[in-house]
Structures are given as structure tokens and as C-alpha cells.
Amino acid sequence: MYELTVYHFMPDKLNLYSDIGNIMALKFRAKQRNIKLNVVDINETENIDLSKADIFFIGGGSDREQALATQALLKIKKQLKDAIEDGLPGLTVCGGYQFLGEKYITPDGQELEGLHILDFYTESKEDRLTGDIVIESEKFGTIVGFENHGGRTYHHYDTLGNVKYGYGNNDTEQKEGIHYKNLLGTYLHGPVLPKNHELTDYLLEAAAKRKGIPFEPQKLDNTVEEAAKQVLVNRALNQKA
Ligand code: GLN
């Protein structure tokens, strides 16, 4: 059996709104293709060897937990940046997405240093951007999820797509997330991967390709997943009407 390894960063601090479900979705869809997914929890960053990771995942957290996680991840920021530049597939959600940038400004104006892996920043406000979200993505089709963040993120990179309902990166641009090399950053909790098999398969396929493992993108029957997604799309768009 083929194997892939996921490094799950800071699961003890960053697991808002069941972000752990993303790991379950990766495991499930890998198994359907006879790939065993090994999950390594990284709560301490000392002496880690990122070359052993085929995918990485960072979930979301409150501002406090986010600041603690950033301190730990600052120790490996060069390794992480090099790995991302080299095409390591990764998913980062909300707080985990925000701290890849230059800085995170809290609602009371405090500046928390980011990892400086990508050139963007996030400014948080007291009023939160919360609720269901629907995105149309050229690459992934319709993406659905749930968002709850004070942070407004501004960047010039590719995004996951255009927001049809909800907020996404901020309350002005109608764009959601980031897509840089094989890195996906998103505000979508819920968790995002079980609701969007296209994103799950994108990460698995990128990891498999990088490792030279065969991967059949079309292999699985997604009828149930598509029907569930349609319910969420209808619910969001009816809320709008
Ligand atoms: N602290 C961040 C914000 O509110 C992240 C929250 C989250 O991960 N859901 O913007």
C-alpha cells in the first residue's frame, strides 16, 4: 500500500469548529484510493524534519492561541517557507492562514508579527464576518463553508475564487482565500474539506504527484457529497433572497 504523511501543526491550540475534520477527510479519500495517510501531530517545532511531510495542515484559533502558535512556528519559518516554495501541498485555515503573512493587527491596534512567508497582512475588527459562505472557483467549482473571523486579509496573490454569498478575505473585495503554489489558505471552517471533495483531492493529488505515487482523480463517486453541497448552496442563496 502506498503511504502519505500529513504534518498537523498545533492541533492542541488550533482546532476551531472541528478543523480536525479536514484530517479525517484527507484520510478517508486517501484510503478510498488505497493510500494510507499517516498523521503526525506537531505541537513542538524543535527538531522537526519537514522533508518527511507530504502535506501540512494548520487550523484556526482564537487570537490568543494564534499568537502562541505563531511563536512556535517562527522557529521553523525558513523551513516552512522553503517547503511551500518547493511545492509542498498545505491547507491553512483562518488563524493558520492569517499568520503566514507579515502581520496581524488585533481589534485594539496591537501588531502581532506573522511568519513573513507570504507578502500580505490582516487587520481585525470587533465586528466579525460570520455565517455560511459560497464561492465560485475557476479551478475547483463551487466551494461551500462557514466563516467566523474578525480579521480582514488583503493580498495580491491568486485566491480560491469569487464570493457569491458571505464575506471571504475581507468585507470589500468579494474574494476568498489564497492559492499559492500548492498552498491553500482559507477562512472556511466547518470543516472545509469534508464539504469540498475537490479541495481534498487537490491536496492528495499534488502530494501523490510529488512523491511519485499513482493517483486517480476521477476514481470516487461523489454523488452524496455533491447533493450535500447543493443543500448548503440552496440554503445560503435562499437566505440572500
Ligand atoms: N483570530 C482570528 C480572527 O478572528 C482567527 C479566528 C479563527 O481562526 N476562526 O480573525
Which features would summarize this protein structure in a list?
alpha/beta, 6-stranded mixed sheet, 7 helices, 241 residues, 12 strands
Please write out the topology.
Elements: E1 2-9, H1 21-31, E2 35-42, E3 55-58, H2 63-74, H3 77-85, E4 90-93, H4 95-98, E5 103-105, E6 111-113, E7 121-137, E8 141-154, E9 161-165, E10 175-176, E11 178-180, E12 183-186, H5 192-195, H6 197-211, H7 223-240
Parallel strand pairs: 1-2, 1-3, 3-4, 4-12, 5-7
Antiparallel strand pairs: 5-6, 7-8, 7-9, 9-10, 11-12
Helix pairs in contact: 1-6
Explain how this protein is built:
The chain is of the alpha/beta class and 241 residues long. The protein has a single domain (2-239), classed as Class I glutamine amidotransferase (GATase) domain (Rossmann fold, 3-Layer(aba) Sandwich), CATH 3.40.50. Helix content is 30%, strand content 31%. The chain has 7 helices and 12 strands. It has helices at 21-31, 63-74, 77-85, 95-98, 192-195, 197-211, 223-240; strands at residues 2-9, 35-42, 55-58, 90-93, 103-105, 111-113, 121-137, 141-154, 161-165, 175-176, 178-180, 183-186. The strands form 2 sheets. It has a 6-stranded mixed β-sheet with strand order 2-1-3-4-12-11. Strands 5, 6, 7, 8, 9 and 10 form a 6-stranded mixed β-sheet that branches. Strand 5 and strand 6 (111-113) form a beta hairpin. Helix 1 crosses helix 6. The longest helix is centred in the C-terminal third of the chain and has 18 residues, at 223-240. It is globular and about 50 Å long. The protein starts with a strand and ends with a helix. Glutamine (GLN) is lined by residues 16, 60-63, 66, 94-95, 124, 148-151. It holds the Pfam family GATase_3. One of its GO terms (molecular function) is transferase activity.
